[in-house]
């Protein structure tokens, strides 16, 4: 205990008895001796009497200070936090601050681009703090092929994804959360099923018939492209995602990395940590945009229109009957529901000094807009432990199970909502759906889709079981030996049964499974000599694939009671397929860095694949990459340039994702070819022993920059991606005995620029605002196709033609309606207009097809990207994403019938079609019913540029608003962290595409009435214990 003299004035509150004894007591501040103890203060008066008062005098004090950088300049906006709690402040424009503290408190000083500094408070009242520049961002480890490397040493085009974006999506697949986030990565959602894999393109289309999607690697194991696979991963289990784009980063994967690589690392437990529990729950709602019903004819309008076409000339009583029923059905209300999505997941993690573990379980329940039910269960576990001092063992296991009950109808429910006539009687007098619709003398759908939906059982089950074992041996600090063995099993079983009362009983059954095995052995050497850093990786890898499938289609059942193939009278289709393929690879990479300023990367890989002929089973791939940290040479003392790095790379990769037997002769069976009554095999396709690999020659130059202490940072990349020896079927002369042969037919080029920009717009102790913008431009061109300028390779509504854009549209060029005749006009290849008259006596297919030509418009976006803004105010957080794409088109096949087939409901504008000579109209003359079979009604419309629509769009993709409970409150209720949030998705879309979400357009350029703009809203909670 110590004593000190102080001058003060004190006011005491004493008990009555004590007051009497001290009535004459006067405290003289000048001679007051205050002795400090734990819980009491002893006051000695001038007459030596001592009064002990139990009271704790606060030792809080206000301190002042200034924060400067290493050059002595004041730093504005430095965050200063007391004891890592919520008490905080920031420096002003002069770098000064003041804050109230208690002796023993620890102040933490943090600022972007500088190392965090901590100072313990004793008796200081004035602080002078200097922050040193931080190389944390450059030293940050980034996932690359077969390892990690620091951002400072990367020579290739690699994007690390902030996994916070995974919180901002309602989709089951983690890939959907990457929409508009990664420059150069174009992701399209798949509407078919909640777990259906999305379509992914990285730096354009790189093949005609082989796969064009990036490879996905999860925890070092290559995932299959079919089945659940990587897309069944729970987003909450993902720790890191890296996107590898250029040759320097992908060539080490050889033929597997030709379309880029997505590397995913999942979460694992922490060492020396107690049990940690994380629980997430979300309830989501999606609603289809039904505003299209405003553009459709109602019951009265449709009957008037049919009457004008002469539908009822021979049966006027039927028209009157339909008018008297006064029916006006809104099919959208009957067929489309609100989608409800419930998701719950829980994880457990922890560890000791020798072992760590992570386990999670997820349940997802979706009832979609068509009433189909989808249930997904996933589980994952990760265990790592040290075996002695030199061995580390890791185990990963995944399980996914999906049960789906599909409410199938005749046609798409969404299409039916458009096309079914509004005057139809849907229900009987008891309110039950009628079996057949009274279509009368109109063509159209005779079955009631509501009845079919209630009397058809469609179910599917998909399973995914995967696992891997990882063993690492470190005999020396500079040498690490690693082995990974992984396996993945996918199975799909689906069946559907239409009851006998619907269509005589129809059964379809499909069963398929695939097994994938992979093994990798690597040796990593890391040495440092003064300013020289070497990192060498050498390895060997094998992959093996097995696929089996069986499908059956049977019909004509006597009863619904026995739904087996043997109970059917007719088995019309039976198909079985088995395949087996494999690959073997050797690879190596050398990374060299001098003084962390000059970096060089060399890689090579030799791949062997069973899919190619004997003459080309093996191929070699390589890359060279270099980078120069210009900042270290010229801007080390600059206050404006925080980082500046120039990158360049060149190299090759390949593609073997074609049919397992593409190079081999194929045999088939046909009942007409038999011997003694038994079918015998016959040759259906010849061998091509010279079939070789598709090869990608990639060139990339990039710039990474950071300005003003990295308040502004980003990347710029320019690339040329040349694809050689494209794989596809090539037509053969009839004298060969075959129609086609899979060959190497041509070359592509994709050329583009990618730009990303990160802005720290504002930050103080309570509020921060950051923005992330990216845009990618890509131009894809067909350079050659077997040296034949007129060769066309069809792919849906688009083609590949030498000299044209990749996936250019091949359609008739509509030139409007002839005001004299009322017929559609088409522009021929020589520019002349052809007035196409309806040929009502026969087929007009050849006539109109003769006018088809390649239109200089493509289905592949010429640019795409996104803008993300993130806000943080105290415990509130908000973020939103704007995504966009443009320069591409879509052939909107979905609206054909709305303008062209009066047997279905029609768009209200068809009433304004051409009627008399001189009319200026956008729609040709409507057909007249000529009292002949409806099948003879021939439309004068064919797929043409009339329905080719600009698919450019800008979309308010999502917005998230969250609140994290105050730590003091959460501690009291025993929760480490609690966050609640609300989300909105697809809130607003601006596009010229009619009725359909442009994101669902296929790469082949077509889109149908199968999907709508779906707006989503959800509420969720994240809790950590």
TrEMBL record:
<dbReference type="GO" id="GO:0009279">
    <property type="term" value="C:cell outer membrane"/>
</dbReference>
<feature type="domain" description="TonB-dependent receptor plug">
    <location>
        <begin position="152"/>
        <end position="261"/>
    </location>
</feature>
<protein>
    <submittedName>
        <fullName>SusC/RagA family TonB-linked outer membrane protein</fullName>
    </submittedName>
</protein>
<keyword id="KW-0813">Transport</keyword>
<keyword id="KW-0812">Transmembrane</keyword>
<comment type="similarity">
    <text>Belongs to the TonB-dependent receptor family.</text>
</comment>
<keyword id="KW-0472">Membrane</keyword>
<keyword id="KW-0998">Cell outer membrane</keyword>
<dbReference type="InterPro" id="IPR008969">
    <property type="entry name" value="CarboxyPept-like_regulatory"/>
</dbReference>
<dbReference type="InterPro" id="IPR039426">
    <property type="entry name" value="TonB-dep_rcpt-like"/>
</dbReference>
<dbReference type="InterPro" id="IPR037066">
    <property type="entry name" value="Plug_dom_sf"/>
</dbReference>
<dbReference type="Pfam" id="PF13715">
    <property type="entry name" value="CarbopepD_reg_2"/>
</dbReference>
<dbReference type="InterPro" id="IPR012910">
    <property type="entry name" value="Plug_dom"/>
</dbReference>
<dbReference type="InterPro" id="IPR023996">
    <property type="entry name" value="TonB-dep_OMP_SusC/RagA"/>
</dbReference>
<dbReference type="InterPro" id="IPR036942">
    <property type="entry name" value="Beta-barrel_TonB_sf"/>
</dbReference>
<dbReference type="Pfam" id="PF07715">
    <property type="entry name" value="Plug"/>
</dbReference>
<dbReference type="InterPro" id="IPR023997">
    <property type="entry name" value="TonB-dep_OMP_SusC/RagA_CS"/>
</dbReference>
<keyword id="KW-1134">Transmembrane beta strand</keyword>
